[in-house]
């Protein structure tokens, strides 16, 4: 199976559809789900990590499954997925005992990790490796070609943007204070972020599908 024969678009559509459903259902779900579902290391965040792992594994699969230059995009994307996984896991702190309790559940702080000083350099190295692959393998023209052919996954990218804005707003990072209950706000933050990650995976699949069409001369 090659990168161009695998039906990435067949997987992208269900992920996009599910992301829209989850985003639209964010508030109703926040009203009915137990508050602890939104806590660190609980169902919603664990699902987020699983989705990010899907993104990383499929990016590596795309890199390994073809011979065309576009496959290097998979290798360039993998470090970014890994950084997102690390962020959601508080760089491994959630795998340890909580350091305290807050109104939003148990607190997991990365400050007490023995390897905490190495986190920032490792993250920087992963991001630089992504940039290096893009530059060395000249992947930027691929993005230009996607724009020229109008093959950017705009719908899924819009869902990513709306989901992350909703998450940031629920967390109080957009310059206004959320007046709904703390537990509901926390669930809105995490569920909308989950929708964004679903759409981000869909975006990657759409890009892989469209790059495959370019390599095979598809319209």
Would you mind describing this structure in some detail?
- 66% of the residues lie in helices and 3% in strands.
- The protein has helices at 8-24, 26-32, 43-64, 72-88, 116-136, 140-148, 154-170, 182-215, and strands at 100-102, 105-107.
- A two-stranded antiparallel ribbon has the order 1-2.
- Residues 1-5 have low confidence and may be disordered.
Give the SSE order as H and E letters.
HHHHEEHHHH
Largest sheet: 2 strands, antiparallel
Number of strands: 2
> Mean pLDDT, as a whole number?
89
What topology, given as strand order, has the largest sheet? 1-2
Our estimate of the beta-strand percent is under 5%
Query: Judging from the principal axes of the Cα atoms, what is the shape?
Result: globular
Instruction: Round the Cα radius of gyration to an integer and report it.
Output: 19 Å
Number of helices: 8
Low-confidence stretches: 1-5
The secondary-structure class comes to mainly alpha
Distance between the termini: 22 Å
Summarize the structure.
This protein has 219 residues and is an all-alpha fold. The protein has helices at residues 8-24, 26-32, 43-64, 72-88, 116-136, 140-148, 154-170, 182-215, and strands at 100-102, 105-107.
What topology does this entry show?
Blueprint: H1 8-24, H2 26-32, H3 43-64, H4 72-88, E1 100-102, E2 105-107, H5 116-136, H6 140-148, H7 154-170, H8 182-215
Antiparallel strand pairs: 1-2
């Amino acid at each position: 199976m090659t990168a161009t024969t695998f039906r990435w678009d067949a997987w992208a559509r269900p992920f996009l559809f599910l992301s829209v459903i989850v985003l639209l259902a964010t508030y109703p779900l926040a009203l009915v789900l137990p508050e602890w579902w939104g806590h660190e290391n609980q169902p919603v965040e664990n699902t987020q990590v699983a989705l990010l792992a899907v993104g990383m594994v499929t990016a590596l699969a795309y890199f390994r499954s073809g011979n065309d230059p576009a496959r290097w995009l998979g290798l360039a994307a993998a470090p970014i997925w890994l950084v997102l996984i690390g962020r959601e896991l508080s760089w491994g702190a959630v795998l340890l005992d909580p350091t305290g309790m807050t109104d939003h559940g148990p607190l997991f702080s990365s400050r007490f990790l023995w390897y905490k000083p190495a986190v920032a350099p490792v993250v920087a190295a992963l991001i630089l490796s992504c940039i290096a692959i893009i530059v060395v393998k000249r992947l930027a023209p691929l993005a230009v070609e996607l724009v020229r052919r109008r093959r950017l996954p705009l719908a899924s990218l819009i869902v990513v943007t709306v989901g992350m804005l909703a998450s940031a707003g629920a967390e109080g990072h957009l310059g206004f204070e959320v007046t709904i209950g703390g537990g509901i706000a926390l669930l809105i933050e995490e569920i909308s972020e989950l929708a964004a990650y679903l759409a981000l995976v869909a975006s990657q699949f759409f890009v892989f599908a469209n790059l495959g069409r370019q390599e095979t001369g598809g319209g």
